[in-house]
Design a protein that fits this description.
By secondary structure, the chain is α+β, with helices and mostly antiparallel strands. It is 60% helix and 8% strand.
Length: 388
């Protein structure tokens, strides 16, 4: 039977030839075996903004397209419907976009997480091809549906159909599991790691290295990250700075990610949560001076937090400068919107109007939902009219 193709969006002539999602998984694996290539799965959702940015900016890059078609059999799956839903449950896909790399016999050997620019994405693809960097997960069974409980499956459904169990249900299931390291029990523990009691936290800490071999460093480190994030919320509530330092030490011990960035994020959450905004801004400026890789997406997140929560005029002005530099590099809708909002909050109304209008035009061109920016523009115009 002839196989259909779905090309990713983009303007370049050389586009990635993603297999149509109606192609069965078995057929994808057969094609990969025939061509002696790994399978690349673009795990996306239809509501994921950064999935669309990935399509527009990275998958449309000619070098990326050429490399992908030469080295992989690429396929897209919408992860809340059909076979994509099965894959979400099996491989615990917890964020989007995610990219999953499989061998020709269907074994997951590598994950790439989140939006990446073309250069960084090509580096990640090369790493995925390196056998020494691939994971061989001893805990993952051959079965795509190993018997997950219904409450687990319901947590992956789309939109209003999605249901999350209460903590009692999760902990009761784990208590009844004969082996906590089994694939099903681990999937439940991972999925609901913010809800598990201290017994299961202790199990993860005590078996950290074993679980990494069974299910991959990303999942186990992510679970520990969830534990530490919960601890951080308690530290913020208690305004307990020594607890912050203990959390940062644990993050380093368990290597839960790029440690400088992780601990910067913990500090920023703590200082914003305890309203120490000058300290928050000083940390960002210090990180920028030290060469810490604060890209435009990170600056957008940090600056948006200032817009939403901070009334310190000096910090608002500093955040506006951060975003001014960001939009010079990447004049995209989300960044322009944040910049316009900060200019408005900083009282720079004429400039705020200019950038809100630019954001709306850019967003409409990219088929974004620009309603919030239009509301912001109304506020800006009302302030300009009221100004003597």
């Amino acid at each position: 039977m002839a196989l259909a193709f779905l090309a990713s969006s983009g303007t370049a002539g050389e586009l990635i030839h993603f297999r149509d999602t109606t192609t069965s998984w078995d057929n994808v694996l057969i094609i990969a075996a025939q061509q002696n290539k790994l399978v690349f799965v673009d795990a996306y959702t239809d509501w994921c903004v950064w999935c669309k940015v990935m399509d527009k900016e990275t998958f449309s890059d000619s070098a990326v397209a050429k490399f992908m078609d030469e080295k992989f059999v690429p396929v897209k799956y919408e992860m809340e419907t059909g076979f994509g839903l099965v894959m979400s449950e099996k491989y615990r896909v917890n964020g989007f976009p995610s990219f999953l790399i499989f061998t020709t016999d269907g074994k997951l050997v590598y994950r790439i997480l989140g939006y990446l620019k073309p250069k960084e994405f090509l580096e990640a693809l090369n790493a995925a091809l390196d056998p020494s960097k691939q994971e061989h997960l001893t805990g993952v069974s051959a079965s795509l549906e190993p018997g997950f409980p219904q409450f687990y499956k319901d947590s992956f459904l789309k939109g209003s159909l999605r249901k999350r169990p209460d903590s009692a249900t999760v902990n009761s299931f784990l208590a009844s599991s004969p082996e906590l390291a089994s694939e099903v029990a681990w999937s439940v523990l991972f999925r609901f790691s913010s809800q598990v009691n201290d017994n299961y936290r202790g199990f993860v800490y005590d078996n950290f290295e074993m679980l990494k071999r069974m299910y991959g460093a990303n999942d186990v480190q992510s679970t520990v990250g969830t534990f530490l994030s919960s601890d951080l919320n308690r530290a913020i509530k208690a305004d307990d700075e020594p607890a912050l330092r203990r959390i940062m030490a644990a993050a380093e011990k368990y290597s839960i990610g790029p440690i400088a960035q992780i601990n910067l994020n913990y500090q920023l959450r703590f200082y914003s949560g305890t309203n120490r905004w000058t300290r928050y801004a000083d940390l960002i400026d210090s990180a920028k001076r030290s060469g810490n890789a604060l890209d435009e997406n990170a600056m957008n997140s940090y600056s948006w937090t200032v817009y939403l929560k901070c009334d310190n005029k000096d910090v608002v002005a500093r955040a506006a400068k951060w975003m001014g530099a960001a939009v010079e590099t990447r004049p995209e809708y989300m960044l322009l919107d944040t910049y316009a909002a900060l200019l408005y909050k900083n009282g720079e109304l004429k400039k705020a109007k200019e950038y809100a209008e630019r954001a709306i035009a850019n967003g409409k061109q990219g088929k974004e939902d620009v309603q919030e920016t239009e509301e912001l523009l109304k506020k800006i115009n009302a302030s300009l009219e009221a100004k003597p």
